[in-house]
Write a structure and sequence with these properties.
YbaK protein; 164 residues; single chain; alpha/beta; globular
């Protein structure tokens, strides 16, 4: 599929609109290889895996939430309720919940441009990079920004306890 056709997909346009609305200096990059996983994205971009932002959807109680975690770390699910000020058991969201909550398919979930506003928390370890890269609504599309821009765009709190 050509770059123009990927950039014209509704999910990618939503990300582009969210970036523009937040006044963040970020261009969407169309990769020649998939960015479905953090390792794939890091390889395609030629960056460390930790500079990739994994947008992970979980359910706390009955509420979908988003954890933005460095690509070289694992989310500590048990830390999410406290970090988000919620209560309830935590489970990984299935593909249907992810699509319903975010409007994106797994592998292309962006941290912005969601179908509904989600409580969001950011892994503090992302601050070790000047620029991080996140999915932009499709498994071949990413955008780069400063870690602080993620907080600005999502309204999320940064937390050191959500990843290990």
């Amino acid at each position: 599929m050509s770059d123009d056709r990927l950039l014209d997909r509704a999910s990618v346009r939503r990300v582009r609109a969210a970036l523009a609305a937040a006044d963040v200096d970020a261009d969407i990059i169309v990769l020649s290889d998939t960015a479905r996983t953090a390792a794939d994205a890091a390889r395609a971009l030629g960056v460390e895996q930790g500079a990739i932002v994994k947008s992970l959807v979980f359910v706390v109680g009955d509420r979908p939430v988003l954890a933005l975690v460095a690509g070289d770390r694992q989310c500590r699910q048990r830390a999410l309720p406290k970090a988000l000020g919620l209560t309830g058991k935590v489970r990984r969201a299935d593909a249907d919940i992810v699509r319903d909550a975010t409007g994106f398919a797994i592998g292309g979930v962006a941290p912005v441009g969601h179908a509904t506003a989600l409580p969001t928390v950011i892994d503090a370890s992302l601050a070790r990079y000047e620029r991080v890269y996140a999915a932009a609504g499709h498994s071949y599309c990413v955008f780069g920004c400063a870690p602080g821009d993620l907080e600005k765009m999502t309204g999320a709190k940064t937390d050191a306890e959500i990843a290990e």
